[in-house]
């Protein structure tokens, strides 16, 4: 690939539903320049620090460029180069020497940098091979989808609808770190006169766009939602016509709500009762009103499905579903009504008997590892230790697994400590792929020849399938034909299936077929009754509360509630916890804990001081960020640091027997709860991985 070329592509970060466009220039197989794509209809030229740092992947001395084989004991971090054939021989021999159900495939965000191309083939490989594989959304957005699915409001209105029509906007646990493309639409809505309220555990970059900021303790969101519902019903602000026609269980719900007064909620949320009443009145009367719900962090606590169950009851009570400017807004893991990718798995069936499958349930997966149920584990684009709660228990399970293979761009903590083989991954400009937002599908062209001996995930899976005699794994002529198969559900104006070539002619952009900016205009909701279910019979039958509830967290002997989430300067544990790319390493040189000045004074902790965060499970070191932007009694840190989950709970949020109540959205997340103590330390905190 010689000569200077300009190419339109997409950022490799997976800030779904945000996906930002890029304009790149390459020459002689080198990336010369990169900037935001001003013509991209979603991102409009915006590119955050994460995207702007991605050129540092290439020609990076830390990048993995050839297969490596462990030398010595696990944890010594000693390696020797090996050939691809030697790596394949070791993997194939380990798989052939065990049973298929004792082989596991765990994927992380790293396999989604070019959209569905790699992840879909992991699923196909696992199904045809009879291997264990899991829905990795249980780490992230699935817990929220589970609660929303029980109520029935899974689909969203678009950000464009919010900008044009919403009069009241509740940013409930939603941050611009997760979806930065929301910001210009918030600005547009505010200029039009919309009133924006942020509800969160801390002030974030979204706070500057809000007219009001309401801070509450982690895990108390369901209590606030129920108190708002109490006021709406008590003061007759509900839409009885909508309720009668499109919901189930209102009478039971209304009676149930009597106990959830603003005074009751105030003791839990620390919000004054009258402010709760004012918020309920504004939401119910200054309409249309939309709730932009956070995608992940809001649901990571012990009872994380409860806020996702209670909050969508608010638009149902007030008749805000199915209308412009109302309903639920853009959310990670959700989409508006539209046509997406084609199902390229329809021609195959699962080889593994259902009885042998380890479910997509984090505690069950950890237990299977610690019980020695897996002999081979392929970690594909994942630093598993940074993403699983109770990483101490997970580490014990990894240590019992005979062969662990890590596929990534850079070394990571899981690979250093437990991998036996490390395979070098291609970067996003070295593969062909697709990205989709709520409204569009975008083409990602292959622009560079892979560095060193790096191979794409598609190539590796195809070559392993050949060696393992897995038939029908890749029935397409080549990778472009495979991408065409994914696009086949989209139809051009003349009725033909969309193709890569057609997308090239259109500049790489494609507006999705069948897009509705307003969800549920036909009032057919995602429940067995097709109505919004205040009362969920399937929840009752599974032993869960049939009506939306709030359960107080189980306290511990430690005084500070620990929580975690995203920032604009990092993306989970990408790029070895951000440390492999100089720009991100400078922005995140070490773990930093947000702590309120009141809590810091009690512990004689100064801003920037070295600290230790500890509880009965473990401890890790960080620096203190003393700030009033978080409430007293709560501490917060960005996710992705491997040490974080030494202190988190790991208990199931939903029992295994209730895991699959919502079709295609398992409730399998572990709790990331932690109560901790923070103390100053004389030790210096080195830059991560020094």
UniProtKB/TrEMBL annotation:
Keyword Kinase: no
GO molecular function: iron-sulfur cluster binding; metal ion binding; molybdopterin cofactor binding; oxidoreductase activity
Alphabetical UniProt keywords: Iron, Iron-sulfur, Metal-binding
InterPro entries: Asp_de-COase-like_dom_sf, MoPterin_dinucl-bd_dom, Mopterin_OxRdtase, Mopterin_OxRdtase_4Fe-4S_dom, Prok_Mopterin_Oxidored
Signal peptide: none
Pfam families the UniProt entry points to: Molybdop_Fe4S4 (PF04879), Molybdopterin (PF00384), Molydop_binding (PF01568)
Domain 4Fe-4S Mo/W bis-MGD-type: 4-62
Protein family: Belongs to the prokaryotic molybdopterin-containing oxidoreductase family.
Name used for this protein in its record: Molybdopterin oxidoreductase
Organism, as annotated: Dictyobacter kobayashii
């Amino acid at each position: 690939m010689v000569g200077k070329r300009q190419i339109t592509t997409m950022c490799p970060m997976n800030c779904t539903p945000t996906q930002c466009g890029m304009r790149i220039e390459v020459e002689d197989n080198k990336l010369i320049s990169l900037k935001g794509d001003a013509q991209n209809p979603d991102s409009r030229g915006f590119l955050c620090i994460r995207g702007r740092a991605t050129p540092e992947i290439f020609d990076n001395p830390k990048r993995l460029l050839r297969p490596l084989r462990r030398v010595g004991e696990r944890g010594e971090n000693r390696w020797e180069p090996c050939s691809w054939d030697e790596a394949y021989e070791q993997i194939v021999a380990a798989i052939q020497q065990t049973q298929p159900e004792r082989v596991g495939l765990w994927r992380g965000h790293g396999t989604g940098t070019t959209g569905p191309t790699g992840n879909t083939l992991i699923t196909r490989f696992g199904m045809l091979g009879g291997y264990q594989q899991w829905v990795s959304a249980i780490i992230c957005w699935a817990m929220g989808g589970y609660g929303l699915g029980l109520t029935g409001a899974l689909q969203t209105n678009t950000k464009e609808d919010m900008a044009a029509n919403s009069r009241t906007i509740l940013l409930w646990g939603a941050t611009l770190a997760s979806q930065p493309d929301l910001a210009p639409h918030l600005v547009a809505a505010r200029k039009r006169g919309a009133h924006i309220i942020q509800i969160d555990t801390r002030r974030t970059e979204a706070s500057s766009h809000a007219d009001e900021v309401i801070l509450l303790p982690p895990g108390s969101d369901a209590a606030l939602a129920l108190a708002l519902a109490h006021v709406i019903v008590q003061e007759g602000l509900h839409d009885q016509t909508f309720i009668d026609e499109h919901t189930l269980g209102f009478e039971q719900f209304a009676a149930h709500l009597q106990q959830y007064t603003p005074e009751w909620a105030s003791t839990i949320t620390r919000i004054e009762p009258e402010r709760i009443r004012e918020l309920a009145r504004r939401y119910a009367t200054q309409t249309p009103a939309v709730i932009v719900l956070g995608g992940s962090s809001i649901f990571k606590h012990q009872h994380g499905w409860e806020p996702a169950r209670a909050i969508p009851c608010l638009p149902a009570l007030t008749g805000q579903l199915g209308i412009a400017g109302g309903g639920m807004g853009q959310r990670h893991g959700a989409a508006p009504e539209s046509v997406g990718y084609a199902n390229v798995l329809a021609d195959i069936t699962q080889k593994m008997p259902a009885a042998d499958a380890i479910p997509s349930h984090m505690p069950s997966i950890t237990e299977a590892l610690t019980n020695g149920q897996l002999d081979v584990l392929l970690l594909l684009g994942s630093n598993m230790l940074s993403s699983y709660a109770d990483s101490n228990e997970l580490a014990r399970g990894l240590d019992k697994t005979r062969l662990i293979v890590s596929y990534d761009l850079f070394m990571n903590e899981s690979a250093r400590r437990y991998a036996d083989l490390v395979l070098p991954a291609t970067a996003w400009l070295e593969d062909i792929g697709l990205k989709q937002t709520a409204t569009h599908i975008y083409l990602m062209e292959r622009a560079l020849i892979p560095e060193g001996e790096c191979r794409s995930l598609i190539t590796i899976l195809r070559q392993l399938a050949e060696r393992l005699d897995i038939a029908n794994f890749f029935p397409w002529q080549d990778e472009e034909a495979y991408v065409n198969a994914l696009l086949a559900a989209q139809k051009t104006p003349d009725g033909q299936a969309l193709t890569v070539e057609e997308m090239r002619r259109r500049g790489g952009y494609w507006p999705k077929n069948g897009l509705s900016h307003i969800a549920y205009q036909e009032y057919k909701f995602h429940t067995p009754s097709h109505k919004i279910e205040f009362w969920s019979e399937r929840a009752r039958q599974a032993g869960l509360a049939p009506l939306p509830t709030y359960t107080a967290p189980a306290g511990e002997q430690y005084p500070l509630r620990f929580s975690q989430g995203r920032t604009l300067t990092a993306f989970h544990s990408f790029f070895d916890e951000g440390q492999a790319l100089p720009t991100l390493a400078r922005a995140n040189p070490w773990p930093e804990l947000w702590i309120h000045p009141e809590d810091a004074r009690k512990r004689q902790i100064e801003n920037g001081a070295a600290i230790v965060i500890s509880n009965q499970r473990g401890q890790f070191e960080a620096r203190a960020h003393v700030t009033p932007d978080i409430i007293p009694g709560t501490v917060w840190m960005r996710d992705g640091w491997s040490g974080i989950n030494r202190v988190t709970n790991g208990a199931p949020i939903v029992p295994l027997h209730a895991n699959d109540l919502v079709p295609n959205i398992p409730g399998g997340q572990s709790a990331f709860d932690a109560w901790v103590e923070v103390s100053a330390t004389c030790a210096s905190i080195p830059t991560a991985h020094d």
